[in-house]
Amino acid sequence: MLNVLFAGRPARWPEFELPLLEACRGAGLxxxxxxxxxxxxxxxxxxxxxxxxxxxxxxxxxxxxxxLWAGVEKVVGNPTLKIPLTRMVDEGLERxxxxxxxxxxxxxxxxxxxxxxxxxxxxxxxxPPLAPDRPVxxxxxxxxxxxxxxxxxxxxxxxxxWSRSPxxxxxITCVSGPEGLDEALRTGEITVLLxxxxxxxxxxxxxxxxxxxxxxxxxxxxxRGELIDDAALIAAxxxxxxxxxxxxxxxxxxxxxxxxxxxxxxxxxxxxxxxxTRPESASRVVAENIxxxxxxxxxxxxxxxxxxx
Length: 309
Ligand code: NAP
Known about the structure:
Blueprint: E1 2-7, H1 13-26, E2 31-34, E3 44-47, E4 64-67, E5 85-86, H2 91-110, H3 113-116, E6 136-139, H4 143-154, E7 159-163, E8 172-176, H5 177-187, E9 190-193, H6 207-211, E10 217-221, H7 230-239, E11 242-247, H8 260-263, E12 267-269, H9 279-294
Parallel strand pairs: 1-2, 1-3, 3-4, 4-5, 6-7, 6-9, 7-8, 9-10, 10-11, 11-12
Helix pairs in contact: 1-9, 2-4
The structure holds NADP nicotinamide-adenine-dinucleotide phosphate.
């Protein structure tokens, strides 16, 4: 019998209880799963940074921390964490992100706003270009970025994707390094951020990089708030260098009422809803990793603690 601690946000336990149990049974595992158990009896920790566990020291026999989120910045540097850490790669999360990013890219590409909010009944007859004439850049070409890129390529958008290591992905102009970032910034009329929050990615979007974008470009941030220098973004919007920013993630969440993003006419705020972990599919990933660990196999989606993601 294995003891699995659910150390996610307590409010989510009712959603996860049955899917986790069923997925573990489906993987042939004999488990007890609970949000409360003596730390020294825990074998695996199903984790979220907003959950109750911040100090891993008392979990003396735990074999792995299985993060329910794709982003790990709040746990990766935890000095009490001495066991393997995995992050979430979940088909539900991926599908959600593809839908959210594709929807927001299409909104800006088609200029939908001018027809949806048109109190003066203006006959806006400007015809938007077709997708092949609208270059899109995606900063971060991992699980989520590459899935979004593939969706946009299927719609006909020319997509440039930037990653840390060089990549080859069909239909996507893959770039890396400082020259690659320059190419992505200069070409993207719409730039989507799907980078993790690490020391190397913070403030990737700043006054200097914003100035390299085509005038009137759109930034869509579904990665993390720390990727953007907020003041520089607002200055670029006010000067017209940036046409619009659609932001799902923020340095402080919920976004404080007094933050200028709320009131800015060319900022769209969505409340960190681009992609959520889905209990059914995520539970299968958790169960598979416990099975692998017990079988002595390598865990899926291990976090590179040095790189921070
Ligand atoms: P991932 O698979 O780890 O991909 C991260 C990508 O960023 C990789 O392509 C990686 O390059 C690239 N990267 C990392 N550091 C870089 C650097 N210094 N320079 C250039 N590229 C760099 O992560 P994912 O699953 O796609 O998730 C991405 C992020 O989305 C998460 O970390 C999380 O913050 C965010 N997220 C947000 C939501 C939401 O609801 N808004 C939901 C889920 C996730 P390599 O390919 O070379 O490693």
